[in-house]
From TrEMBL:
It holds the Pfam family Abhydrolase_1. It comes from Scardovia inopinata F0304. One of its GO terms (molecular function) is catalytic activity. Residues 37-286 form the AB hydrolase-1 domain. Residues 77-96, 304-323 are annotated as: Disordered. InterPro entries: AB_hydrolase_1 (IPR000073), AB_hydrolase_fold (IPR029058), AB_hydrolase_sf (IPR050266), Epox_hydrolase-like (IPR000639). The lineage of its organism: Bacteria, Bacillati, Actinomycetota, Actinomycetes, Bifidobacteriales. This is AB hydrolase-1 domain-containing protein.
Length: 323
């Protein structure tokens, strides 16, 4: 493992690991030592490809603004090209199948993968389940966080109903050796966004979910079920931060994510409500989300030059609705 400067809690996690998890990362724009990359952490039950449209827009927008930062998107273990971790790498399981420390071990593995590429800090962008891991990185490796963007996610653990549902999805995926338990993500409902109801969305998400492994689906659900509550982590964020919420998101909509703003007083985050977008805002509205990410990167650069970032203004100036 690469040397790092972890918190005591992170060191304890690392000491319990025999190795870090294998992470395969896709590069949308490369960089060099000393750069601050943008790391795009994807949602469940997909892989890095859900970020593709947004990543391309982020590269385009930043090039128009004469910015040149790396843009990377790792596959979460059990998705895309990243294999499902074995029992030793995953750590102890509870009797119900949830992993006690897998989320923290994944956070360690992401950090080590980024450090192995030569970067000492990053702007971490996590959507949904990716947001859970981004917050774990903030708790374990705050010095690795140059900026933080949380999309369509929550800081608290699952409700009892949500927890039970995760475990049930994991069991059904393994028992039936099928991805059908999560295929509902490709089947829009009446109150979903226009794009989510399009043939393009349905065909793309159906194809991507079909390509996931049932074992990977189960591992990610059991990992997320056992994650820590990160509500207290929000107060530790001091880097430039942004919250993005799809207006139609039924899981972590604007009413949920706005509650995080006062808990992040050290970051004074910008807030974007993306109109006509649901839980997968970066895929449904890639340009709008890319613009919000690029704005965060500019605030990181400004802060690095010793100036006050524009985005860190009184709360009334931060709520930005993107149509």
């Amino acid at each position: 493992m690469t040397d790092t400067t972890p918190t005591l809690q992170a060191q304890q996690v690392m000491d319990a690991m025999s190795d870090d998890m294998e992470i395969v990362t896709s590069v949308y724009r490369d960089g060099q030592d000393g750069d601050i990359p943008v790391i795009l952490l994807h949602a469940f039950p997909l892989d890095h490809r859900m970020w593709g449209r947004c990543a391309q827009e982020l590269v385009r927008i930043s090039e128009e603004n004469h910015e040149d930062f790396p843009v990377l998107a790792p596959d979460m273990p059990g998705s895309g090209m990243s294999p499902v971790p074995d029992a030793e790498l995953s750590g102890e399981q509870n009797d119900d199948g949830s992993y006690k420390q897998a989320c923290d071990r994944l956070a360690v593995s992401y950090v080590l993968a980024v450090q192995d590429m030569g970067y000492s800090k990053a702007v971490w962008v996590g959507i949904s389940m990716g947001g859970y891991v981004a917050l774990a990185i903030q708790r374990l490796f705050p010095e690795m966080v140059a900026g933080l963007v949380l999309c369509d996610t929550r800081a608290e653990r699952d409700t009892a109903e949500g927890y039970a549902n995760r475990l049930n999805v994991a069991r059904q995926a393994l028992l039936a050796h099928s991805v059908e338990p999560v295929m509902h993500f490709a089947r829009p409902q009446e109150d979903d966004s226009d794009f989510k109801k399009s043939d393009e969305y349905i065909a793309t998400f159906t194809d991507w979910i079909d390509q996931q492994s049932p074992a990977g689906i189960a591992w990610r659900e059991n990992m997320a079920a056992g994650r820590q509550d990160e509500t207290g982590t929000l107060a530790t964020i001091t880097a430039p931060a942004t919250l993005i919420s799809g207006q139609l998101d039924r899981f972590s909509g604007p009413d949920v994510m706005r509650n995080m703003v006062p808990l992040m007083s050290g970051a004074n985050p910008a807030f974007y409500e993306i109109k006509d977008a649901g839980h997968f805002s970066c895929f449904e509205k890639p340009t709008e989300v890319a613009q919000a990410i690029e704005d965060t990167v500019r605030r990181v650069v400004t802060l690095g030059k010793g100036n006050q970032p524009e985005g860190n203004q009184p709360e009334g100036n931060q709520v930005k609705e993107e149509s």
